[in-house]
Amino acid sequence: VKISKSYKLASRDFHPDSTVIKIKDVEIGGDQLVIMGGPCAVESPEQIDEIARLVKASGAQVLRGGAFKPRTGPYSFQGVGVEGLVMMAEAGKKHGVLTITEVMTPEYVDVCAEYADILQVGTRNMQNFDLLRKLGTIQTPVLLKRGFSSTYDEFLNAAEYILAGGNPNVMLCERGIRTFESYTRNTLDLAAIPVLQSLSHLPVISDPSHGTGRRELVEPMSKASVAAGANGLIVEMHTDPDNSMTGDGVQSLFPDQFARLMQDLEKLAPLC
Ligand code: PEP
Ligand code: MN
Prior knowledge:
Shape: globular
Order of helices and strands: EEEHEHEHEHEHEHEHHEH
Number of helices: 9
Structural class: alpha/beta
Largest sheet: 8 strands, parallel, barrel
Strand content: 5-15%
Distance between the termini: 35 Å
Radius of gyration: 17 Å
Number of strands: 10
Bound molecules: phosphoenolpyruvate, manganese (II) ion
Helix content: 25-40%
């Protein structure tokens, strides 16, 4: 594979030791597998509180949930906004889990960082360079999702923007790419996991939910991702997926499926 290596700080040549990001008692990129679970979108205080409880009870370390949603169409539900950040922060604190939420614009970075432990850059914003530059000015860990049509080189250059700005706490997330196959929503590129880990020292997280778009594929692709060496997973789970406010209910696990997946994963890799 010909890689231009125009990036430097993201490269393993430059930084041979794997980066371990410590957030409270959780280490991402070390020996433990880190699981982030929760709904596509924060919907209400009751919803996120109950899901936080289930995430914690199952042994996962991080609660996911979007307050700002990057929707393909402008008439779709766009997220509950800042109120959602508050709801999720309260639920995370109450149940003792870290939180991750998506930030879409540079102006919202500071408020998102005030409420969440990890900031997510979505696939559609991987090359939102102003956003990446702004994320370089803070120290809050960032989960950078791979653009759905981006090469590894473009992905690592996007990470380089954040690192070059002065924030070393970046993790990479493979969330599926666009291919000719239409049975699945995206094609989860499993090879990205070992490739990125060889090219870069940054932790690699897999997203089998957006990577397949189908609930029944989340469990096998979670296990495949761990077998391929992923440092963690980000998985959608909802208490009432059929009535979720985004279309991602079809890829969201029911709580009992999520709990069972956690038990199975524990046999494959040590959890926190
Ligand atoms: C999400 O995590 O809900 C999301 C919108 O992800 P992506 O950016 O990978 O589509
Ligand atoms: Mn989603």
